[in-house]
Automatic annotation (TrEMBL):
Chief location: cytoplasm
Protein name: Exportin 7
Any Pfam family: TPR_XPO7
Family: Belongs to the exportin family.
Domain Exportin-7/Ran-binding protein 17 TPR repeats: 509-746
Alphabetical UniProt keywords: Cytoplasm, Nucleus, Protein transport, Transport
Subcellular location: Cytoplasm; Nucleus
Transmembrane regions: none
Highest taxon listed in the record's lineage: Eukaryota
């Protein structure tokens, strides 16, 4: 008893003491008690005797933890005792105890039942719980029983990773699902039926109000727990992957109930029971909607008869219709006053269902959670059922009308985004399904309702956005504000702020930020507009024309007026809608009829496009003439529309659209598609010239420009536009100010020149390309001459005598911009002719200039990194573009130039490292001026150096052996320097940087294949560190590419050793010397191969990688080299088995692995071993599971 009191005091201190020291001391003392030998028996004894809530909580939680970690050591007697203690507490001692203690005991009982599920006593849990909790009709015990069942269902639905494998979890889950899950579900239904019965008694019996209220209140908590239990049963892991357990993931799943559930689900009383409880007990409503959501997700194949499925769907729609009717008229009272006598032979529950088919739903307020639940249900009904099935329901049209009313209410109440999106997704899917409806009356009604919803949504968006402030671009920057004016012509308010842009297009300051409410809903509502496209076009055209006229008048007379911003916002919304209609990806699914060889869709697209192009041309013309700054929000909507129009009518992936050009000619005097392309190009160039202060517009304009230039046929057509010819010649910062403004932003300048170069190289005739290219690169030649002057040389580009001095920020900006521009030009080369043209221009003059820039700017990491990026792009043999003629020495020149630069930088790195042992790698010549993240800059440079070397070796545009003949030890020195840097760093510094390690392992893999001597020729300590670093790669990463390269590198070394070590006929002196060096490495590190083999064996056995071709080859190579170690592993595994029969079985498994495997590394032998290894791993795992079960018994 003294020990018990001590433990109680310790737990009180642990949970209540404000002193951290006292809590720590109490925890240490309690941990010592838990880790004692006889702790399990003492825990059970104290759990049964103590009355302290904290001690009960602590001991039950610790006992559960011990069970999860060491369940195999528990005897059957201890397991039964744990069950007995838990049930005894829950039934006899839980009254008045806090809820968290009860839950702890319930979780303890549930985990014991699950892990001991193979025994007969655990599988009889339903009958045991019924006898214990439900036999006496004690409401308190019933509550505990329902919660215990709920926790038990949760435990079986999720895997306990520390206590069971996935296979064991699925076996128990399937057994639990097949034996008792349905019984638990039915038990919850029984309790709900009893509550409904009590409700009927309260209505029919002559009871006073107090008695009636007390009787219902007693059942509320019981009903809530029963509904929780039903929700857990329906959200059970039926398939083995509980991906639908959250609201976000469960929207797309189909509830795969087993066939044995069919009779229960198909019962005629099932759904009416829930709607009855919903109508009369308000506290049940949110939980009932959760259950109804799962009912609406049930797979259709569960119903054995078509009529049963139709009846179920009809009950679901009629029930939700009854709920939806409440939102039509708040004063509606739809109760049924039928007091006729009922047949006496009907049971009480049937009387309830028969008497309350029209339920009173008017006892609730406009609860947003209820509306959200309804939105999820109606969305799921449409997602799970075809349009044909829905239209066969008599109440479908009224149901749809009430969903429209609910949608309008959602707009008016400004509900949460998710609620609105569920409803809009419902209407979007409904509109795309109209083509499958044959009843024209239904189609007509649906189109009318869908159009009404669309109009309401557009008005809602316009009213919302017009209450926000839309200011000009210069107003955004300066922060100036305008005076408010009264607007008598509209009902919109002019209470403005600066968040309007985010309302439409999302946060443009955060590219990965949350997308706006409008853009999220746009795709769903686009289907609504195309459902009745002509009427939608007419409605939007009228809105557009009135806003356009107002916008022109205000811009001409009162530029900068707040009303201009409001009109710009409205026009932006309308132009964005136009774009979504024109470029909708599912437009073929919409029911559109043909008329006079010109489809309605094309006619409507032409009308909307004409309106947009008129606004676009007028707006650009006005801004250029008036020198005013326009509205950023409107410009972004223009870019969105142009992109959508390009997708449908300009992209080469679509069919010819001559009809729309004819119609546009009638509406806007467009002559052909070339005329249309001029508008696109004019807009792009104007944006690049005018909007240099807006990064968002620049980014989207460059993206659109790139999309136009990428398709070959479109790019060739663009070359016929006059402005493109001028752009190829005049592309400096004088004409495009953003080039100088964002000289340090790589993406803008690089993408701009990449797109121009792509257009230039889309010309068909190579002679024309060369002529235009010579004009195109003239500005670069001038900048190169300027850089020479900056570097201190006043002569021509051919000279290489440069001096060094202090440089200004402007000098640095010129050099960085020049390198980024060249990067854009080089990255546009996608074929051999273009690449050769660019290389002949760059080599040798510009390569010399790059080297001298590196020498002259040793303290500027930005310059070094940008040059390395450029050289990496030059060395990248993308699309096999680097293929020189057989007589051309360009391949040698290229590799020589690359190796020269890499040698220069890597040598400085090695010299600057010295003998430092700290983890700060920033003290290098070109990293001295770094402010933050110095180590990252160092690793970035190191990664780029290895990337260039890897691409130079693996590019196949020259034989690397040439450099061993003509360049001495240059290549060897580079590789040696980079590898020395890598192995001198802590392994964690390499392994924690994915891109760096990926580049390193790719380089090592290619060296082990073609230049293995560079890996072998180093001291034994370095060689061991290198092998360990490579081996760590396929152990810690899940990336298949890295795993393959790691295996390839080590396998090449082991295979080289296996083939050449005992080869008596080896005559090549170089190979013989390398073999001797490699053998000395293994002799100096005698455990290296053994540890490596054990390491690979464990990975193959426990990480499911035996099917990998690369690791199976490595396993075979190590097994042939370390035969004794393989036998030792085999013998150790067998010696750990007690049963002689199991020993023989395990030995046979090992013998089958090596049978028929020859002592060579030929491809046939490797392929045979791979198949055997897969079978070996599977048999070992099955053997371990079976042996573990025998051991437990």
């Amino acid at each position: 008893m003294e020990k018990l009191k001590t433990l109680e005091q310790l737990t009180i201190k642990l949970y209540e003491s404000p002193s951290h020291q006292l809590r720590s001391q109490s925890e240490e003392a309690l941990t010592e008690f838990i880790n004692s030998r006889d702790s399990i028996s003492k825990i059970l004894q104290f759990l049964d005797k103590t009355n302290c809530a904290y001690l009960r909580l602590y001991l039950s939680a610790q006992l559960r933890k011990i069970i999860i970690e060491k369940f195999a050591v528990f005897s059957d007697k201890e397991i039964d005792e744990i069950k007995l203690v838990s049930i005894n507490f829950l039934t006899k001692k839980s009254k008045g105890v806090t809820n968290f203690v009860k839950v702890s005991f319930q979780r303890l009982l549930a985990i014991v039942i699950k892990l001991n599920w193979e025994t007969e006593s655990s599988q009889q849990v339903v009958s045991m719980f019924t006898d214990v909790f439900f036999s006496n009709q004690d409401q308190a015990l019933c509550l505990i029983g329902l919660k215990t069942f709920g926790i038990l269902v949760e435990e079986f639905s999720q895997q306990i990773t520390n206590a069971e494998s996935f296979l064991e979890h699925r076996q128990r889950t399937i057994s639990f699902r097949g034996q008792i899950l349905l019984d638990i579900f039915r038990l919850g239904i029984v309790f709900l039926e009893s509550i409904a019965t009590k409700f009927l008694l309260n209505q029919n019996e002559d009871l006073n109000q107090q008695q009636s209220t007390n009787r219902l209140e007693e059942s509320v908590q019981l009903g809530l727990d029963a509904l929780d239990l039903l929700t857990k049963c329906l959200s059970f892991d039926f398939l083995g992957s509980p991906y639908y357990l959250t609201e976000t993931t469960c929207d797309q799943f189909i509830l795969q109930l087993p066939p044995c559930w069919a009779n229960t689900i198909q019962s005629k009383d099932m759904l009416p029971l829930f709607f009855l409880l919903y109508a009369n007990i308000s506290k049940f409503r949110s939980k009932i909607l959760q259950v109804l959501f799962f009912f609406s997700s049930i797979r259709k194949s569960l119903f054995t008869d078509e009529q049963l499925r139709k009846d179920f769907l009809s009950n679901l729609i009629s029930g939700t219709l009854g709920i939806l009717l409440k939102y039509q008229d708040p004063n509606n009272n739809n109760t049924n006053n039928n007091n006729n006598d009922n047949q006496e032979n009907l049971n009480i529950l049937q009387k309830v269902i028969n008497q309350n088919q029209n339920y009173d739903y008017n006892n609730e307020d406009y609860d947003q959670s209820i509306i959200h639940g309804l939105a999820r249900i109606v969305y799921k009904i449409k997602l799970n059922h075809r349009m044909k099935s829905l239209t066969q329901i008599d109440q479908f049209l009224p149901w749809m009308e009430e969903i429209a009313n609910l949608t309008f209410l959602c707009f008016e109440m400004k509900m949460l985004d998710n609620t609105e999106n569920y409803l809009l997704e419902f209407w979007g899917k409904l509109s795309t399904s109209l083509r499958y409806v044959r009843n024209q009356d239904v189609v007509k009604t649906l189109k009318r309702v869908v159009h009404k919803v669309l109009v309401k949504w557009i008005n809602f968006v316009l009213e919302t956005i017009s209450k926000e402030d839309i200011k000009t671009a210069n107003t955004f920057n300066s922060g100036n504000s305008f005076s408010n004016y009264n607007n008598n012509s509209h009902n919109y308010e002019d209470n403005f702020d600066e968040d309007s842009f985010d309302l439409i297009f999302g946060s443009h300051s955060k590219p990965l930020g949350k997308e706006s409410r409008f853009m999220i809903a746009l795709e769903a509502t686009t289907g609504l507009g195309l459902c009745n496209y002509p009427e939608t076009t007419q409605f939007l055209s009228e809105l557009f024309k009135s806003s356009f006229e107002s916008y022109k008048k205000l811009m001409s007379t009162k530029w900068g007026h707040p009303k201009c911003g409001k009109n710009a916002a409205v026009l932006s919304i309308l132009v964005t809608l136009f774009g979504s209609f024109v470029g909708y990806k599912h437009r073929k699914l919409i029911h559109i009829k043909e008329e006079n060889s010109l489809t309605e869709a094309t006619e409507c697209d032409a009308r909307l496009a004409a309106l947009t192009f008129n606004l676009l041309e007028w707006n650009d013309s006005f801004l250029l003439q008036s020198q005013h700054t326009g509205y950023e929000i409107l410009e972004v909507s223009f870019l969105f529309f142009l992109d959508m129009f390009r997708r449908s009518y300009v992209s080469p992936s679509t069919n010819s659209r001559n009809a729309i050009y004819l119609r546009l000619y009638e509406l806007t005097n467009f002559k052909n598609n070339i005329h249309l392309l001029k508008i696109f190009i004019n807009k792009i160039i104007n944006n690049l010239q005018i909007w240099s202060n807006s990064e968002l517009i620049l980014q989207r304009t460059l993206t659109l420009f790139d999309k136009f230039a990428q398709p070959y046929c479109v790019g060739a057509k663009l070359l016929s536009v006059k402005k493109i010819d001028n752009l190829v010649i005049n592309h400096t910062e004088i004409i495009f100010p953003f080039i100088e403004k964002y000289s340090e932003n790589r993406s803008y300048r690089t993408k701009f020149y990449q797109t121009i170069s792509t257009l230039l190289f889309s010309e068909k005739e190579h002679i024309v390309i060369e002529k235009i290219f010579s004009v195109f690169v003239d500005p670069f030649q001038k900048v190169a001459e300027q850089i020479i002057l900056i570097l201190g040389q006043q002569s021509s580009l051919k000279s290489t005598n440069f001096t060094s001095h202090n440089y200004s920020k402007n000098d640095l900006k010129v050099i960085l911009g020049f390198i980024k521009d060249l990067l854009g030009v080089v990255s546009s080369a996608n074929n051999t002719k273009v690449y050769t043209l660019i290389f002949d221009w760059l080599y040798p003059d510009f390569f010399k200039l790059f080297n001298e820039i590196i020498i002259s700017f040793p303290n500027h990491y930005k310059v070094i990194i940008q040059i390395l990026k450029l050289l990496s792009e030059i060395s990248y043999n993308r699309y096999q573009r680097i293929i020189f003629e057989s007589w051309s020495p360009n391949g040698v020149y290229l590799v020589k130039a690359l190796i020269s630069t890499v040698d220069e930088i890597s040598t400085k790195l090695v010299q600057s490292m010295g003998n430092k042992n700290d983890n700060n790698y920033s003290n290098y010549p070109f990293l001295n001026n770094c402010d933050n993240n110095n180590n990252n800059k160092f690793f970035k440079c190191l990664k780029l150096l290895m990337e260039i070397l890897f691409r130079a070796i693996s590019g196949n545009y020259v034989s690397i052996g040439v450099f061993q003949v003509y360049s001495g030890n240059t290549l060897h020195n580079i590789i040696d320097s980079l590898i020395n840097i890598i192995i001198s760093l802590p392994q964690s510094a390499i392994l924690n940087r994915f891109e760096l390690y990926e580049t390193f392992i790719s380089l090592i893999a290619i060296l082990s294949k073609d230049l293995i001597e560079y890996l072998i020729k180093r001291n034994s300590k370095q060689f061991k560190t290198l092998i360990q670093l490579i081996a760590q790669g396929f152990a810690i990463t899940q990336n298949q590419f890295i795993c393959d390269r790691c295996c390839m590198a080590i396998d090449s070394i082991i295979e080289f050793y296996f083939i050449n070590y005992n080869n008596q006929y080896l005559r090549n002196e170089k190979t013989r010397n390398l073999t001797q060096i490699l053998n000395s490495h293994f002799e100096n590190n005698p455990n290296l191969l053994k540890d490596l083999f054990n390491f690979v064996f464990n990975i193959v056995l426990f990480e499911s990688k035996s099917e990998n071709w690369a690791i199976s080859k490595l396993f075979l190579s190590l097994m042939l080299v370390e035969k004794e170690e393989f036998l030792n592993i085999k013998q150790n595994k067998i010696n750990n088995i007690d049963n002689e029969e199991d020993k023989v079985k395990l030995e046979q498994i090992f013998e089958e692995l090596v049978s028929d495997i020859e002592n060579n590394l030929y491809r046939v032998n490797k392929s045979k071993f791979r198949n055997k290894l897969e079978k070996f791993v599977d048999e070992i795992k099955i053997f371990d599971i079976e042996y573990w079960k025998k051991y437990r018994k």
